[in-house]
């Protein structure tokens, strides 16, 4: 038996045999449901034989046959009733386990979200995306509606990547009917939150209403995505509305998984626990920095990938510089707890950063991953996993801790047919086209190209995707290539920045000649770029389809 657990109360498998009933009882099951009609195969025991064996083993038994491809609403409701009335845990089987899993998915549709159902079934090895519409419709088969929307291009995600790409594409193809799907009412300039945490920017300057930024002529569907049906060129929204497309662009960003760190969500924004990765918390970072006159300050970095890999240490440098300026730095012990094994992934920038680590007297602890936090007790627990050493757990006291949460693809992406094994949208790293579905592209933080997840990367990717979609519409092959460009302005002190710019494989891709701005060294020019130039470039150029200083490379013929 290949038993697959769906929930604590239900496990499933393919066809079992009479002598398996005793084994099931020994494994703690208390009831068995057979969803396979008699006579599907010559070697298949009848349900009467299976019922006798189950009862002999002390198991309750229910025969609820399902014809392949026909899972009725009535049968799903009967299955739901059975799960309530039968003693649990319950074991269900059919030929492969798929029908039983489908019954459960439809039976739970009124109380669980589409994403939660797809996640549970996918973890067990069953793809329920084919019944996503029914799940979204409460388990009931939806009727076709003339009100379902249809667009030339649908963009999932209204962040930096989605708005910039839509604006760039609209500039190339003004007559296209484009829709952006995003439930958020506010759009944030997230690169500014590091500066908010240092008292340089006001938080309010990093937020604008979503409606004010949607490109002219582009539709905005203010809704959340429940599932994808790429074979039907359809996106299923919450509430079972269906949006059809000719071409799809997927760029909803990533998910900050705060809950993965035990105790963190309860203490965020108090007890000295903060993070520049949230709009409402970045001002608290500045408040803590101003108030700290002595003690222990911890800055954490989770395992990669994360958006803006330099942001965890940016918070450290700017905080330390403020303490240095106020003369309290000698009274503060700074720990940088990094789950990775290097200070920065591109070696050319490391010497300058190491100089600031030494200047501020910070202790760098590699392979230290934050797993739990006790806010009231001011204690942080780390798993230490050094190479060639046994894992250990340590607990450290703190007066202030800046936490960077683990980061994953959004749930509705991870459970979708678009995702790779790790949950990210699976694209060709050069053209950003999906590897399986030719009319789907992805950009920004959610796709699996091995580049830095930054707004600067999205700024470069947007015209690449726009170019390639326009070429596809014209019947041409992909024209533009993404070279992995990303930028990370490392704010090493107030007034100076190490401007890291690089592409795939850590190749340096500077925007300026070295005589004008050497990105490997801290400069005032780079600070002015970050503080005064990049915000208006973001709001007034990038999000409006104006591709200043961007020229995508051309695809090389193979």
From TrEMBL:
Any Pfam family matching the protein: Pyr_redox_2
Residue ranges annotated for the Beta-lactamase hydrolase-like protein phosphatase-like domain, each copy included: 2-109
Signal peptide, first to last residue: none
GO biological process: sulfide oxidation, using sulfide:quinone oxidoreductase
Cofactor or coenzyme needed: FAD
Name of protein: Uncharacterized protein
Superkingdom in the source lineage: Bacteria
Record keywords: FAD, Flavoprotein, Oxidoreductase, Quinone, Transit peptide
Lineage, broadest ranks: Bacteria, Pseudomonadati, Pseudomonadota, Alphaproteobacteria, Rhodobacterales
Record-level Gene Ontology MF annotations: FAD binding; hydrolase activity; quinone binding; sulfide:quinone oxidoreductase activity
Matches recorded under InterPro entries: BLH_phosphatase-like (IPR005939), FAD/NAD-bd_sf (IPR036188), FAD/NAD-binding_dom (IPR023753), Prot-tyrosine_phosphatase-like (IPR029021), Sulphide_quinone_reductase (IPR015904)
Ranges where the FAD/NAD(P)-binding domain occurs: 151-271
